[in-house]
Design a protein that fits this description.
2 copies of one chain form a homodimer.
Chain A lengths: L2 H33 L2 H17 L1 H17 L4 H7 L3 H15 L8 E6 L5 E8 L2 E6 L4 H12 L3 E5 L5 H17 L7 E3 L6 H8 L7 E5 L2 H10 L12 E5 L5 H13 L8 E7 H17 L3 E4 L1 H6 L4 E2 L2 H4 L7 E7 L1 H12 L4 E5 L3 H10 L4 E6 L16 E3 L7 E3 L5 E12 L3
Parallel strand pairs in A: 3-4, 3-6, 4-5, 7-8, 7-12, 8-11, 9-10, 9-11, 12-13
Antiparallel strand pairs in A: 1-2, 2-16, 14-15
Amino acid sequence: MSGAALAGTALADDITLTMNEIGRNARRASRALALASADRKKAALFAMAAALRAASGEILRENARDVEQARAAGQPASFIDRLFLDEARLEGIAQAVEAIAALTDPVGRVLATFERPNGLVIERVATPLGVIGVIFESRPNVTADAGALCVMAGNAAILRAGSDSFCTSSAIARAMASGLREAGLPEHAIQLVPTRDRAAVGAMLTGLNGCIDVIVPRGGKSLVARVQEEARVPVFAHLEGLCHVFVHERADLDMALAIVRNAKLRRTGVCGAAETLLVDRACAQTHLAPLVAMLIEAGCAVRGDEATCAVDARVVAATEEDWRTEYLDAIIAVRVVDGLDGALAHIAEYSSAHTDAIITDDQAAAERFLAEVDSAIVVHNASTQFADGGEFGFGAEIGIATGRMHARGPVGVEQLTSFKYRVRGSGQTRP
Amino acid sequence: MSGAALAGTALADDITLTMNEIGRNARRASRALALASADRKKAALFAMAAALRAASGEILRENARDVEQARAAGQPASFIDRLFLDEARLEGIAQAVEAIAALTDPVGRVLATFERPNGLVIERVATPLGVIGVIFESRPNVTADAGALCVMAGNAAILRAGSDSFCTSSAIARAMASGLREAGLPEHAIQLVPTRDRAAVGAMLTGLNGCIDVIVPRGGKSLVARVQEEARVPVFAHLEGLCHVFVHERADLDMALAIVRNAKLRRTGVCGAAETLLVDRACAQTHLAPLVAMLIEAGCAVRGDEATCAVDARVVAATEEDWRTEYLDAIIAVRVVDGLDGALAHIAEYSSAHTDAIITDDQAAAERFLAEVDSAIVVHNASTQFADGGEFGFGAEIGIATGRMHARGPVGVEQLTSFKYRVRGSGQTRP
């Protein structure tokens, strides 16, 4: 074995040892967190927010180092903007932590109660999940957001920050830990992985010998794909948000114009942004041209099927690939379909099961759409951009999940809990 | 490559092709099942029960073949007994399917509703999970039970029977398929893997290219361990039921005697059977000797710590291994612990997170135990043998899960569902 390979092995072993220790610390901390009262968790979050404000000088200094390195590495302006912090943005981060402290404690909620004929009273009661691994890219606010959400739900968090935000995330994590200490909670309840080495991600994906219960990736498609591919523990994620808006023959044109515009263009980079517009052939003559013109005039490129190309010379012909593309940009694919069945067939084939909407005044058509589209969020007569934990009233969210296990749709504090059964008897034995 | 190896590869390829086709068929069937009404699913289950009765001649003939082969292979009597069917047992299987048809349809339940300030009405509504893979050993009734439960929850099932019950399970599966056909549901909603080859299990554990959503193993510890180790999809299971009963210092002795006897000895082979008895040092002087005497006189071997050995000469000294052993037999490990804290520490170290019980008249101690023991089921003043979907009022169960994801405790039809969000608007766009 060459010297370099030997050194690499030694380094990998070091990282394995470090990560396993982080895992054990997290599991131990999670036991204390699981039993912490709502008041104590809230006190910790308020102390974290105060610590973030008190450490603003250090955090902004560390952020300046990250930004400088990212600039030197030639990162694009949009990347630098996501990374950059100033006093106002840091204050926003502190306030977001306080907003999480204002949520109802999801732990201990009695989800169901049933008394059995033999007198046993059985309750299903919410408990924390345990240890949550969060792997994210270069948005430094995630360190605070995700850490606070996990703690509020009684979980320990292991956070792996993007290497470009490593200095900023480390400074934020120190503030979070001091908040935990101040409230008398174990500081290992929020641990930042202390290395930029990507081997740490691989270690997390193995679950650290059973010390991670679930992984939440937050970032672009390649990160999520790697996590979904390699993780040996459950993952809460969506690979992409290939969201559809279907304009049914009985859609009000003005409502359709407003919703399609909002769903596509309010923010084009969010996962709830519409990527494909389906128009019912039965109303194409009246609705298609105005919808296409509105989009183009609002600055959106339109890639359409034959029928769509025919109504506006500015439409570019769509290819099969367009029905499969999450643009995350001011581009939309437009297709004319044969009624509700055509729309359902297109969505079944191409949707990423994130959020899909129908616009119609026909209640029966709406109900069929809501029942038959197998997506985490199905919408009638509203914008797909409501696909968001805040808009759902969940408060902050750690992400949106498209899987069918445990959490689906926006993942807020309630979705970061599990449950157990409490059985209360008076001496019952089973016959 | 040798001829034999080549033939092996060809066979493995065949099995991969077969299993992938089964997966695709199941996924297609699951879409139809997801939209099936409660009435249609119930009709299918009643038709299955009728078909099982009508096919009793064939099923019992096939069962006789399985039993003959198992005898020839030298399987023990307990194994043969689990495998054996007669008219009465087959009638029991048909009635169990009818009992599942009597359950409330878990699909479409509105789990939560919230109206947002902008007028959006958001519902969380139960949906099927999709495709469930069930891998089981030689109890032929599981073919009918598991298939019926999956269908009632709107899921397709892929069933892999133990090779010793292959003929019986195949005959039962044919009856189930004819019931599905009769009700107008796709017969691929219940598919039995048509080979004894163990490579089929490996294929299922990969998830069949995304065509299996969850795996449920039903069988002994080695089967569950293999599935948990190798599955690339979520698993609902418990590896073992290392259940504890803690007799607290304020336990009523008569109640303790009755509950411990029932928890250990009602049936020793079930996962909810107690394996370890913990006795509070503060009541050991009054409670330990009678508990030990009762157990021994009821035919139970006792393996005890020093304090337990001291009260009864018939007690055998326990080793560390005893605290970790699920006997599934008339053997119990007994240890004296220092109060509630000692019991909590022992349980945190050794419990399999299945079911643990406290016996006490002290409400505060009971509440601490119920809160702090991190098991799927925690019990106060009742037997651990109530750990059962039927006893919980869930109707039939497909098993008991000790994981924290999605399903925990008894897994009945409700736990075989997922959910989605239905959002109803009147033209809302997001500001």
